[in-house]
Design goal:
alpha+beta; six-stranded antiparallel β-sheet; globular
């Protein structure tokens, strides 16, 4: 493919809103199905490992997570084992470095951009029904990722997202207002990036129109690092599976100044790099 990936209208929408939904960006057969198949196999391996009497449906794109709800009902720690394993699926790692991601980054950020993949910034989320501890509060991506102020999240679901599953919520245009200070409160057992709360959160998010797009496998949601967003509440009987990967611009001055440091996943508290963003004092 040599033509432009985006229309001028799509690029304009992204510049204005900091959010762009691209339906059917990935090929279901070559890009998505191998990931789903590997997830199915890994869940089966964990079930077998603990000799659990869990019956499963035959594999299909719609049943790739069969047995997972029964697995975590037996022991929530088994779900963490699956979570750590699936991010190491070769088909997923290949998708992280998909050649179209570089092209898309440059179409949105300009030909002078030098894209980088945020190490530790990619994975497969599993948002379980009714589980609050790992649900992401309203936040910007930069404090949790660093790398550079000029960054994009590439987000894509592995199953069709319904209202009941809790789509991600976005404050459209919020990236224009820059970085937001945060409090580190740790409420509800949340830690690290999950514990951060925006300064004047409710007042702040009320300023913007919100969107919570319903997407399907193969669709790509592109999000500016500074857009305010939050995980939806999963009220379904099934986990919400999605892929996230982060790209950043090596040429952005703030990232260059701090050496493209990573944040929480790299063992760095962003407050040691940006103490001015900590609304309740510097990190210890």
């Amino acid at each position: 493919m040599t033509g432009a990936l985006l229309t001028p209208a799509q690029r304009e929408t992204f510049q204005e809103e900091g959010l762009l939904i691209i339906p059917g960006f990935y090929d279901l057969e070559s890009d998505i199905l191998p990931i789903q198949r590997a997830i199915y196999d890994i869940i089966g391996l964990v079930i077998d490992k603990y000799r659990l009497p869990i019956s499963r449906q035959p594999f299909s794109a719609e049943t790739f997570d069969s047995g997972y709800q029964a697995l975590i009902a037996t022991n929530r720690a088994h779900g963490a084992e699956v979570y750590d394993a699936v991010k190491q699926i070769p088909a997923f790692v290949r998708l992280v470095a998909h050649p179209l991601h570089d092209r898309l980054f440059r179409e949105l950020r300009g030909e002078d951009a030098l894209p980088g993949v945020a190490a530790g910034g990619y994975g497969i989320r599993i948002d379980n029904p009714g589980e609050e501890r790992f649900r992401a509060n309203w936040h910007q991506e930069y404090p949790a990722q660093l790398r550079s102020l000029d960054g994009l999240v590439y987000w894509s679901p592995l199953l069709k997202v319904s209202e009941e599953l809790g789509p991600v919520q976005f404050c459209l245009g919020s990236h224009h207002d820059g970085l937001v200070p945060v409090h580190s409160v740790g409420a509800g057992g949340k830690t690290r990036a999950y514990a951060l709360v925006l300064q004047d959160e409710q007042e702040r998010i009320a300023r913007y129109p919100q969107a919570a797009p319903l997407t399907a496998p193969g669709d790509l949601v592109v999000v500016d690092f500074l857009v305010l967003h939050a995980s939806g509440f999963n009220r379904a009987q099934r986990s919400r599976w999605s892929m996230q990967l982060r790209y950043f611009n090596f040429n952005e001055p703030t990232g260059r100044a701090h050496g493209w440091k990573g944040s929480f996943a790299a063992g760095v508290d962003f407050r040691s790099v940006h103490p001015e963003l900590c609304a309740d004092g510097e990190a210890e």
